[in-house]
Amino acid sequence: MIQHFPPIKQNTMSKKSTLITLKLLLLSIYFLNGNSTFATPTYCYPTFASGCFSWSNQSISIGTINWTLGSTSCSVYDYTSMSTNITPGVATPMSVTAQNYCGCAVWVDLNNNGSFDDAGENFHTEYVAGPSGIYTYNFSITLPGGTPAGSYRMRVLAGWGANGTTGNPYPTGNGVGSCGAYNYGNFDDFTLVVVGSATCFQPTGLAISNIQANSATVTWVAPTSGTPIGYVWKVVASGTGAAGTAVSSGTTVAPTTSATATGLSPATSYDLYVYTTCSATDSSAWAGPMNFTTTSLPTCDTALGLAASAITSNSAYISWTAVTGASGYEYVLDQNAGNPTGAGASTTNTFYNATGLTPNNTYYFHLRTDCVGAATATSAWITIPLTTLDTCLPPTNVSASSITQVSATITWTAAPAAL
């Protein structure tokens, strides 16, 4: 824009005064045109065609900022008088609760140019259709390690069915971006004050593998800056934060970036946190959480194929199929059809030779599996009946042949123990 000023009357001032006046006027033009870092940036704002009502942020926490909407109108957005210190290169935990199926997106104007659209200025984007339409987003933001000290505007947007950047699941055609056109929603602006700089940086790439019922392998990636000498890791109950009581923890010496967490409970959700140590007095903030859930304990299965064979008047051969993971078996041979009330005799075999039985009697063979590291120490009992043969049995397969009017040939199969 061309600025117009009244002509300078040379006859009313000296040449020196004229030069000073011209310089002041030129500086005024420079500042008025926004060329100075002292000028306050002008920001664009998102629009919400249907308003906000209860489709909005309900609470926002980061550092010393603990904001709640309360009875304030959801259309109020300028909370830049609220600020918190933040150290570049350090992950700072943040929590945002949004209502009525709103997503969460966070931007920081890192170059104070009045725009959140520059590369690297979007720090979080997420949409979860929470139960009853309300959801708390827990995450961390990390400003670049070289961010200069100073104040920076942060924008937190809650868009109805929108993650604020791309791929909005509902409704179709909803807006994107820090200044997008949304249906319902709201936004709130705050101030982040960058102080100091990190010298010991957090590990990245936290991961969990080889997850078992009572253990898991935890890994991370060494920071690309700084001089790590080791790492401290801990596994805590899910949702308790880095200050939570460690269920499993340990240290490693650089460059080792893995460990095994033990003593975990089956089918339980945990969070992993790790921080870097660079000296006895210098360490990073915790990196995390990385959530994982342990597996359920395997079941202790009953044996298959339990059967009795080669039954005589006083003996029988009983066998079954081996159970994977079994440490052994317990058996009871009695004449009670009900399950045993106590433990049985132990064996690691998959067969049993029953001897000394009474002829023409019914017995019951009960079997259960013993297990180690399973949900239960033993399986349920399974039972089969068996009846011993009589000591004097009739012959079998009786037949007649060569029959005439006065004769016939009779044959049969001899009975066991027949004289």
Describe the protein's topology.
Blueprint: H1 15-32, E1 47-48, E2 57-62, E3 65-68, E4 78-86, E5 92-98, E6 104-108, E7 122-126, E8 135-141, E9 150-159, E10 181-182, E11 185-194, E12 204-209, E13 216-221, E14 230-237, E15 246-253, E16 258-261, E17 269-277, E18 287-293, E19 304-309, E20 316-321, E21 326-334, E22 345-347, E23 351-354, E24 362-371, E25 382-387, E26 396-401, E27 409-413
Parallel strand pairs: 1-10, 4-11
Antiparallel strand pairs: 2-3, 2-5, 5-8, 6-7, 6-9, 9-11, 12-13, 13-16, 14-15, 14-17, 17-18, 19-20, 20-23, 21-22, 21-24, 24-25, 26-27
**Biggest sheet: strand arrangement:** 4-11-9-6-7
**Which overall shape is indicated by the principal axes computed on the Cα atoms?**
elongated
Q: What is the number of domains?
A: 4
How much helical structure, as a percent, in the residues? under 10%
What's the story with the biggest beta sheet? 5 strands, mixed
Report how far the terminal alpha carbons are from each other: 130 Å
Task: Give the total of beta strands.
Answer: 27
Secondary structure class reads mainly beta
CATH class wording of the largest domain = Mainly Beta
Could you please describe the fold and organization of this structure?
It is a single chain. The protein is mainly β. It has four domains: 1-36; 47-194, Immunoglobulin-like, CATH 2.60.40; 204-293, Immunoglobulin-like (Sandwich), CATH 2.60.40; 304-387, Immunoglobulins (Immunoglobulin-like, Sandwich). The chain is 4% helix and 41% strand. The chain has one helix and 27 strands. It has a five-stranded mixed β-sheet with strand order 4-11-9-6-7, with no helix packed on it. A four-stranded antiparallel β-sheet has the order 3-2-5-8, with no helix packed on it. The longest helix has 18 residues, at 15-32. The chain is elongated. The model is unreliable at 1-38 (pLDDT under 50).
